[in-house]
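Batch manifest line 475
LIGAND: D-malate
JOB: complex structure
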Amino acid sequence: LTPERYPVQRLPFSTVSEEDLAAFERIIPGRVITDPEQLEACNVDWLRSVRGCSKVLLRPQTTEEVSQILRHCHKRNLAVNPQGGNTGMVGGSVPVFDEIILSTALMNQVISFHDVSGILVCQAGCVLEELSQYVQERDFIMPLDLGAKGSCHIGGNVATNAGGLRFLRYGSLRGTVLGLEVVLADGTILNCLTSLRKDNTGYDLKQLFIGSEGTLGIITAVSILCPPRPKAVNVAFLGCPGFAEVLQTFSTCKGMLGEILSAFEFMDAECMQLVGQHLHLTNPVQESPFYVLVETSGSSAGHDTEKLTSVLEQVLNSGLVSDGTIATDQRKVQMLWALRERITEALSRDGYVFKYDISLPVDRLYDLVIDLRTRVGPRAKHVVGYGHLGDGNLHLNVTAEAFSQELLGALEPYVYAWTAEQRGSVSAEHGLGFKKKNVLGYSKPPVAVKLMQQLKVLLDPKGILNPYKTLPAQA
Ligand code: FAD
Ligand code: MLT
Ligand code: ZN
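JOB STATUS: finished
ARTIFACT:
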């Protein structure tokens, strides 16, 4: 949590005065928090890797309140850090210095749900898991799911353009988000909260805010398309003897499962060891160098189980898989998913985590993990690879007893240069936030970075929204 790890200077924003607090109190009476104990949790990120020192937490309930708050902050040149569930992985969700924290926690109302179209309109602070329950009761599901579902907010999901476990099937939020309401830096309300599948009336402004990590505006409401709830969900958990076999298993699944394939996730043996050691989860199959989780979602239980069973037979007979198990009942499905979803938690219990979230051509995906293991040697406790293989997204994590500048030096810029050489992305789904903002150039050309900076100036001329995040300090 040491700030010297990240050399950055406070920009000349104003500091919050007694008059500012009084103004906020008039806008959101009783919801201006200055108690240091209550502020502690929202100054530290989920990974406990960065810490800010904000002295004010604001908890608006309505868009109008957010607008009035920003109008005041803009006039007074006060910096603001938008915060959802604070589960972000790149240090974007907490202040760097004393930025005001604007939390969406109390903006948690469903505005409407249409049971024919499946279009949900809700406030930005709705917790993803609660939305999932809400739409499931109406025979729909959310188009995204992630391990942080119990805490993350839909606004935070949209602000980071979160990928997650259903991306393979339902695609990016760039496709499923139909409309947004956003409050701009000066307090202007931009109402693009439409619920239309098709709308080619000029530039698609909502796309600017999807994945903008709170630097261009505060998302206050979201309109999102929910797919129908699949009648049958099956999961297979398989052990593979090598990474080449993982890839061939993926090809086999795509070929044999077709439209019912809804997830293809992988993890290596060290991940399995960590979820066993720290969370006491049991490996349901024979020990293997790699494991894959295959999910099918379809409309016919018998048909889907039959299809998945013949995949299992095929991959076992051809030696692509050494052992496997299938779950059709919800309890076992959840138990198998936990092995993959809870890796993040197990890693955080192992020590300090150096986290990389990379897009790579799928056939080179694991080479980086092997390469890095040799490079860092005993300086690391674990070098692990897991992730959304079906999306070409590797989560490469390195754990150590404690943060070490020397280990960081061995990892960076090596990992980024390696990724750039493959024309990969240095942030597949977590964004850039505070920790990765200076590596944007590995994945984007200077002209693109400059255009991003110009857009930032256009939308937030005083730079009050989530300063020190996403964009590199210099082009
Ligand atoms: P926060 O962490 O509070 O904020 C994230 C960023 O968005 C910050 O920059 C913040 O300023 C900004 N922001 C938040 N709300 C708003 C708003 N209303 N308007 C404007 N800006 C806003 N991510 C994935 O992509 N895929 C995964 O599979 C995945 N799994 C995870 C599993 C675990 C266990 C954990 C802890 C995290 C995981 N994440 C994953 C990362 C994280 O959950 C996602 O990035 C999530 O979308 C963040 O939502 P949040 O509400 O917690 O946002
Ligand atoms: C995941 O897929 O588990 C998340 O993105 C979190 C992580 O990278 O650890
Ligand atoms: Zn992920």
